Amino acid sequence: WPLRVENIRKLLVFDHRCLRDIAGVCWDHRVSNSEVRRSVLGNGGESVDEVVNLHRLRWLGHVLRMPEHRLPRRSMLTGVRDDIVGTDTEDDFDDLKAIAELERKQRNVQREALEKKLLSLLLPTDERDLNSAVIMELFAGAGGKEAGLFAHDLMNMYHAFAIQRNWSFTVLHKTVMSNEECAPSHNETSLSYVRIEIEGEPTTESGIMSFGAYGQLKWEAGVHRVQRVPVTSSQNKIHTSTVAVSIQPKYGDVDIDIPDNDLKWEFHRPTGPGGQNVNKLHEIHSKSQSHLIDSIRRSHLGNLDRSEKIRTYNFPQDRITDHRLNNSWNNLYRFMKQAVGLSEVIESLYKQDQRERLKRKLCTGDIKS
């Protein structure tokens, strides 16, 4: 794909006609045609950034080579729909209407299949999203024992989600709260920490369901906030507590043999005012000059920043608010006990991510975004 004027025009046509249809609601006044044109043609359309445009043309070449007739237009579907609506139901055109309706459904299927194919070409799947196993950690934050109770509620919510997906759910470790300190137990329900392994294979379905456990649950990483009257409270006041959720894909064990004589170990003790460098271990691999620094420092999970919250569970108002989607839902029971609402939120987050990635491509052509 040489850098010629006609190829630049083809690129613009592709951006505006194909991606605009797929992006849907994300194409608004904030992403104007002039912005896209400037990002492709340069300032004022007078100069062309050869490096960027050549990179984009090579990347989009295999898509632009698709014959025009393989990209069914929405106008064709509109015409079929008009034929159906315009037919007089009192006339003997039932057969024509049935044929037109069948054609409309077939073209819809073709259009959706092509849009999915374009999305797979433009937005490659992260290999980690196909990972079937995930390690989830829950840390009780601000709120004391009430935060521990909420951590237990979240664990049950993810258990219900795993059951709905027919996934395996295993509690690897949990630490419960006592009055004065956290101690291992299986009788208490106020958890200060819990480590869970969830395993679920990708399916042949499209969208978020084609991902494994990590690809679907990665959206749950962050600070979850709860607002409710604690069962331990005697004043009947609403308290706010937080729980941090960590999500990591699980990988198989890899054996690496490194001779001990290739390693250099250095130990460091606290130095300077306040002892900031606390118990550091510095490891160097002499041949590759790779460095590994490990340090022991106090955990600050108890002071989780509430401004980092991703979702709020408001029990008095029976409302869940996801701050990334800027949207709220009612019925906490449906969300936490049945996990139906959670599935819908995860699906919405996935679609929002797809739209945002498409928007970045429309404006910058960044194929890595």
UniProtKB/TrEMBL annotation:
PANTHER family assigned: LD18447P
The organism's place on the tree of life at top rank: Eukaryota
GO biological process entries: translational termination
Classification via InterPro entries: PCRF, Pep_chain_release_fac_I_sf, Prokaryotic/Mito_RF
Protein name: Uncharacterized protein
Pfam hit, one: PCRF
UniProt key word Ribosomal protein: no
Protein keywords: Methylation
SUPFAM superfamilies reported for this sequence: Release factor
Keyword Nuclease among record annotations: no
